[in-house]
Amino acid sequence: MTISPDVAAVSTSRSQRARHYVMTRPTFFTVAYAINPWMDTTTPVDVERAVAQWETLRATYSTLGHTVDLVDPVPGLPDMVYAANAGLIINGTAIVARFKHAERDGESVAYATWMDRRGHAPVSTFHVNEGQGDLLVVGSMILAGTGFRTDPRAHAEVAALTGMPVISLELVDPRFYHLDTALAVLDDTTIAYYPPAFTDRARAQLQQLFPDAIEVSSTDAYVLGLNAVSDGKHVVHPAQATGFAEQLYHAGFHPIGVDLSELLKGGGSVKCCTLEVFS
Question: What stretch or stretches form a coiled coil here (predicted)?
């Protein structure tokens, strides 16, 4: 592929930063209940395939030089693979998730135990917060989703606990029930997002904050293409989001597609499987 001088110039400005991720193997993954539009209890799940796809994602992070810690899966918690929902760990503060649905309550206990063992003293919010599913760090601010899962009142709690400004963004399409399904953080100043997933007010906020944001098509959004993880240069994304991959390339990023189609049956993909620890 020929790289134009303009694209090459942008590419050289993208820089990778070593990251610290936390993941949980989908040993007990299944779709035993339906709490989002992606989940269908009548659709069979191939656990071996889910584990193999997850292993590819983990290996991708390791190959890129990132640290990956593992939290042991717990029987009876099939959604525990979606580690991003576990909480938010940043600047010495570890906020453990408070889930909306009772089916996921046990995950908070499991991840809080891991946080405590690793020296991250976990704290809780009074209101529902679903971790990095709805709390995405961009530079010195936190973009916070609401509308389906995280209670907007938790946003003020997160701001008080972290000392960081929190920007509330309301989601309106149930297919994009968490912020990380409709918006991807690419570096400290760059995002990609799917405008129809947000209210008019939220779109206006994003346009003001990120005038150069990448806007993805419905085709890519509907395969959860924005459920991606970036280290500032490499963007690991669902392999089916080919249009998004091209947009990333032309913006100077290095897209890496990973097939997580089996885990998509539970309503999650790359980012959902990845909790980032911010030091």
Answer: none
pLDDT above 80: residue 27: yes
Catalytic, out of 178, 234, 237, 273: 178
Tens-place pLDDT, residues 133-186: 999 999 999 999 999 999 999 999 999 999 999 999 999 999 999 999 999 999
Using the Cα atoms of residue 54, residue 223, residue 191 and residue 200 in order, give the sign of their dihedral.
Answer: negative
Residue 184 bridge partners (DSSP): 192
Cα–Cα dist 176/232, whole Å: 24
Kindly name the residue from 66, 237, 272, 273 that is annotated as catalytic: 272
* Residues contacting 263, CB < 8 A, separation 6+: 26, 29, 50, 53, 54, 81, 269, 272, 273
- Residue 272 is a catalytic residue: yes
- Rounded to 5 degrees, what are φ and ψ at 6? -65, -45
Per-residue burial over 114-148, b = 16 or more CB atoms within 10 Å of its CB, e = otherwise: bbeeeebebeebeebbbbbbbbbbbeeebbbbbbb
Are 129 and 150 a contacting pair, CB within 8 Å?
yes
pLDDT tens digit sequence for 43-81: 999 999 999 999 999 999 999 999 999 999 999 999 999
Q: Which residue has the tokens 């916070």?
A: 144
- pTM for the whole structure: 0.95
3-state secondary structure of 193: strand
Residues 277, 22 contacting (CB under 8 angstroms):
yes
- Residue 273 annotated to the active site: no
Domains and CATH numbers, the chain: 16-278 (3.75.10.10)
